[in-house]
Design brief:
The protein is α+β, with helices and mostly antiparallel strands. The protein folds into two domains: about 280 residues, Beta-lactamase (3-Layer(aba) Sandwich); about 80 residues, Lipocalin (Beta Barrel), CATH 2.40.128. The protein is built from eleven helices and 21 strands.
Length: about 450
């Protein structure tokens, strides 16, 4: 269930502090309202939030249940899987090795891992870090991977899942999010250091930075205060599908707490993890990654007119939002124990509140007459950065849905003037270009990108 997060309160203008930001107490009240609304609207069984501006901790709290079966309340020290937020830890470890002269960004990966599949060997370390390698991702092979979720796998087995598949594109010529690329980076860390990736992260970051609950989140060790993951099912919840946690590995296997990630955000973004030059590389999209705003394990975005360094994480039963806004020294972390939680949308609302910007409100949805729905129904060849994909618009009950090939259908909300939105992303738009009585083209506006597709 994906819903835009709104607080059940009206947010009135704040009295600003000397720095131009709302007072801590006022932001804390809004945060509480947003979190309670998130739980009430079934965003997840629980949500933990850390909101730290400068040296002021605005919020370090949790709401809801970390474990429904045992009726365990979530706390700020509840430990959640953080999914792909793991990637910034892996990329920071690689950059430390670069600073030490042990790895070169523009070396081919075969310099260090000569037994990788032949087609992969020409890929550079830089291309692995920013998802421009073209290596096919094991998480993108559909049922061939899903049916093996229960198997513990070592890195060589993960590589073998796509070793015989063609490259997505020539290395460095395009961008596509790639978990196999980050698996290879974990293998690189192990080869250079002689330690397992999980132990390296613990010794390199967790212990020296005081990240007491940040660790490789394997299933068998006892993890105190471990939250359980859930999926929405009708009006209730089910336990999430089992995933052997050796599989996400260096692309997504860490778990953590909101307090640990607040510490990490400040350390990474204020020069206590990597050098200024390395940090600039991690946060500056370049080449084929520029259009996707992706650096090395981190993305660039804007919120309320301010640059934001961010990366989310989604993994079975959990969804994470994590961001740093440099101009305000603002750290925001949202951990939720539902795979469908819109942690990223809640994060953006929290950022607006802490910055004194108005909260976003959902668009006004209009009725769409049944006689007008067929005008939009059809299949459109949507031109996406990674190649064209079919987008099917169909009638389902009293509504229209949109379904991108390989994904589930999502309900469309009519906003007028042949324009539709969705409930989980306030800014996303589907705009239809009409030719007489039916649509001839669809335009998708999402994440600052514009993607068009003619009717097939």
């Amino acid at each position: 269930m994906r819903r835009f997060v709104t607080a059940a309160v009206f947010v009135l203008p704040f009295s600003l502090t000397a720095q131009g930001f709302p007072p801590v107490a006022a932001v804390a009240r809004v945060t509480d309202s947003l979190a309670q609304a998130f739980i009430a609207e079934r965003g997840a069984p629980s949500v933990a939030i850390a909101l730290v501006r400068g040296r002021d901790t605005i919020t370090m709290r949790a709401w809801g249940k970390a474990d429904l079966e045992e009726d365990v309340a979530a706390t700020p020290r509840s430990v959640y899987r953080i999914g792909s937020v793991t990637k910034q830890f892996t990329s920071a470890a690689v950059m430390q090795l670069v600073e030490q002269g042990k790895v070169k960004l523009d070396d081919s990966i075969a310099t260090y891992l000569p037994t990788l599949p032949v087609a992969w060997r020409v890929v550079t370390v830089r291309q692995l870090l920013n998802h421009t390698s073209g290596i096919p991702s094991y998480t993108g092979i559909g049922p061939a991977w899903v049916r093996r979720w229960g198997e513990e796998m070592n890195p060589d087995t993960l590589v073998a899942l796509t070793a015989n598949m063609p490259m997505w594109f020539a290395p460095g010529t395009n961008w596509r999010y790639d978990n196999s690329g980050y698996v290879v980076l974990g293998m690189l860390i192990e080869k250079i250091t002689g330690h397992s990736w999980g132990n390296d992260i613990a010794e390199r970051f967790s212990k020296p930075l005081g990240l007491e609950d940040t660790r490789e989140c394997l299933a068998t060790p006892i993890v105190p205060r471990r939250a359980r993951g859930y999926d929405a099912a009708g009006n209730g919840w089910t336990n999430t599908s089992y995933l052997a946690m050796s599989q996400p590995y260096s692309a997504g296997a860490l778990c953590s707490t909101v307090g640990d990630l607040a510490k990490w955000n400040r350390a990474l973004n204020t020069g206590h993890v990597v050098s200024a030059a390395s940090y600039a590389l991690m946060t500056t999209p370049e080449g084929a990654a520029a259009a996707s705003k992706y650096g090395f394990g981190l993305s660039r975005d804007t919120i309320a007119g301010r640059p934001m360094i961010t990366h989310g994480g989604g993994i079975n039963g959990f969804a994470t939002g994590n961001a740093w806004i440099p101009s305000a020294e603002l750290s925001i972390t949202v951990l939720a124990n539902s795979g469908s939680a819109r942690s990223d949308e809640l994060l953006k609302q929290l950022a607006r509140a802490a910055l004194g910007a108005p909260l976003e409100q959902p668009p006004r949805v209009l009725p769409l007459a049944a006689a007008n729905r067929p005008r939009y129904v059809g299949v459109y060849a949507l031109a996406l950065p990674n190649g064209p994909r079919d987008l099917t618009v169909a009638e389902q009950g009293d509504n229209l849905t949109a379904q991108l090939a390989g994904q589930s259908a999502i309900p469309l909300l009519y906003l007028g003037n042949d324009t539709f939105g969705v409930g989980f992303d306030r800014a996303l738009r589907f705009i239809f270009t009409m030719d007489g009585a039916r649509a001839a083209k669809i335009t998708l506006l999402q994440g600052g990108g514009r993607f068009e597709g003619p009717r097939k």
